[in-house]
Each structure stands twice: as C-alpha cells, then as structure tokens.
Amino acid sequence: MTVRALVLAGCALAALPALAEDSRTMQSARERAAESAPGPWQGNWVLLRDDPRIRTRGGAATLRLHVIHDAGGAVELQWIADRGICEDPNAGPCEWVGGNGTGRAVAAGGGALAVLLRISADPDDPFLLVLERSGEGRATARLVSEKGDIAYRLDAERE
C-alpha cells in the first residue's frame, strides 16, 4: 500500500464517527415540515413565592414547570410542587411537596397562560395558575385554589 493510500484510509477512518453522528441526527424533509416552531412559553420555569415570611430562595420555590408550547397555540406542561407550596412557609413541609402532574392550558397567548393544576387531593379544589409575561424570560403569576381559600403571588423565571 502506498503512503498516499494509507493517509486516505486513515482520513476515512477518522471521519466515520462524524458520519455516523450526522446520519443519526439527520431528519427527512417530511419530519422537518411536521415540526412547528416553539411558542413563547416553551421551556423550563421555576415559580417563586412572594411572601415576607420566606427568607431563602429554596424556601420560596413553589412550582417547577416544563412547558411544551408550539407556535400553533397548544400548551401542555409537567409540574412538580416544591416547599413554597405549603400554606405556612415556616412549618415543616406539607403533603403537597413533591406532588407532580401534567396539565393543559385552559387559555394561552403570548402575554398570558392559564392552567388548572390538580395539586390537592381534593378533586373539587384544583388550583388555577395564571402567568403574565413581565419581561424576557420572566413572568408574574397567581396561584389560587378554586375554593379561594389559598392564593399566592409568584414570580416566574426561566431556568
């Protein structure tokens, strides 16, 4: 084998991992056409409770959201409750901490998003979460139980 043939063979072998990676990530034109652009709420969000009794960011963390929003308007989300969800922030963690679920937006637009969350074990008392965009990657929010006995003001930011 000539030196030139050896060099070409070596270059071909070196390129194999890159070619394999390209073939795994390539999409057909049909697959690309079926995708839609992400909507303005797309992404991961952390919601922090605005309560003067809470002194740490960890204590203020109320909800973490993973929002799937396409530009066509459909919004689905996954949520998990954190320590700030408890009514008394100075007491031990309540039964809602670690609660999680999925939801669909009841109303969605570029400036606001409203979602029903089944945080409580009481099926007749879901929470309504309303987010209103306040700046790039930020929003203000209200979390209110349907019966109205629990209401929090929250600050939301992208993670």
TrEMBL record:
<keyword id="KW-0732">Signal</keyword>
<feature type="signal peptide">
    <location>
        <begin position="1"/>
        <end position="20"/>
    </location>
</feature>
<protein>
    <recommendedName>
        <fullName>Alkaline proteinase inhibitor/ Outer membrane lipoprotein Omp19 domain-containing protein</fullName>
    </recommendedName>
</protein>
